[in-house]
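Re: your question from the hallway

Yes, I did run it. Sequences:
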Amino acid sequence: MKRLFVKTWGCQMNVYDSQRMADVLAPMGYAPVDRPDDADMVILNTCHIREKATEKVFSELGRLRAAKQARQDAGKGDMMIAVAGCVAQAEGAEITARAPFVDLVFGPQTYHELPDMVATAARQGGLVNTDFPVEAKFDHLPDAAADPGVSAFLSVQEGCDKFCTFCVVPYTRGAEYSRPVDRIVEEARRLVARGAREITLLGQNVNAFHGDGPDGKAWGLGRLIYRLAEIEGLARIRYTTSHPRDMDDALIRAHGEVPQLMPFLHLPVQSGADRVLAAMNRKHTADHYRAIVDRLRDARPDLALSSDFIVGFPGETAADFAETLRLVTEIGFAQAYSFKYSARAGTPAAALDDPLSDAEKSDRLTALQQLLNEQQLAFNHAMVGRTIPVLFDRAGRKPGQIQGRSPWMQSVHVVAPARLCGSIETVRIDQALANSLSATLVLRDAVALAPDVPDAPARARAAHRAAAAGR
Ligand code: SAH
Ligand code: SF4
Ligand code: F3S
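Structure:
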């Protein structure tokens, strides 16, 4: 057996890809280990989205160089070091120039060629492959791993044609590609047969999905979700990351009609100011976003929202930033990610004048995060005393505990036997913390007596509005 250590940064797509790389390498005798020190091969699956993400790769490479040397000195043989993912795609040969001890650099569209690449790199070293091959990688990857876990990822779409002016993804992942519906359904069935109860459909722009359907027509994500909901045993469906522009009628309808589709949606908006949205090339206004959220909430009143925000985009004024705060206050998010703008070489925004000081950007980020944190806490607090279904998927942090997710993605822990992992149980929420909920298991025979799942997000929203009005 050869030891394989994979370290993953970035989005869920990278998490999925890392699993697939391990699947591709398994027939070559590589088995995953959880430490790099004694590994025969180390793959860094990297993210290029912001400068900090990229820097991490080079500091990790510094550590690995020492580990590789130590292994050689101890006469234990070589440690092959590979850099995959979006930094590999964007920086390619620069990586081997800056870190010549790296054996292999390969981009996200080449993972199916891994066995060949590993063999070549072992012979000659220093292989760089950042091609976008004509054949689709997905058609050449083996089945997903034997144990997908209770909550599994499934890539349905990859790449992006949106070209937001700040973003590297269209360059690192390439053009949009959607997998055929039949293959997705087959993979979903296999995942469920191997124990998955929840599937999260992945794509850089997952709702731009337009895969070939069995009827020869292109299917949208909404239609795909209706199809997947027919799979027996698949209790929960989620998807990420979506773009406001691609939220079409069928998908919105699915939120109202498909009970397996969970009432939680990550829908990045980036900014609340139309000037900034235009400069970002997001192709929608703040009101367009509000209108979509209204339609989604009409379809599914208990829908909770999550989003991404960028503060300090070049040219963002104090008034623009105030518009972002206003949008957040109006909508009420259950959770969110927010970032300081990071200029990325090769993107159009990197050429824009950026007079705002870093201190000013930090202040805006702090203010936004404070508001978002308050909303998250209010959302979690509105759950206390409620009875909700939780899909348990792992051991808890404390002994005797298990942990799972609410329909709204909150992490919930209870004292309960580990055998309940993999099942959906009704719990009563006792306490809300900033990032999780603690709960008590409701006895199974009492489930039928439990009240309906409450409209907690609507209550949280009302709480935000009341708080905002009183400010
Ligand atoms: N496809 C998704 C997001 C992919 S990147 C979408 O369309 O929204 C994830 C998040 O990283 C983005 O939503 C954005 O908020 C952030 N991001 C991307 N590029 C960035 C940059 N140059 N600086 C700061 N944040 C960035
Ligand atoms: Fe990047 Fe925009 Fe594409 Fe999202 S939609 S991946 S932010 S270019
Ligand atoms: Fe990062 Fe690439 Fe994902 S840049 S966010 S790993 S698509």
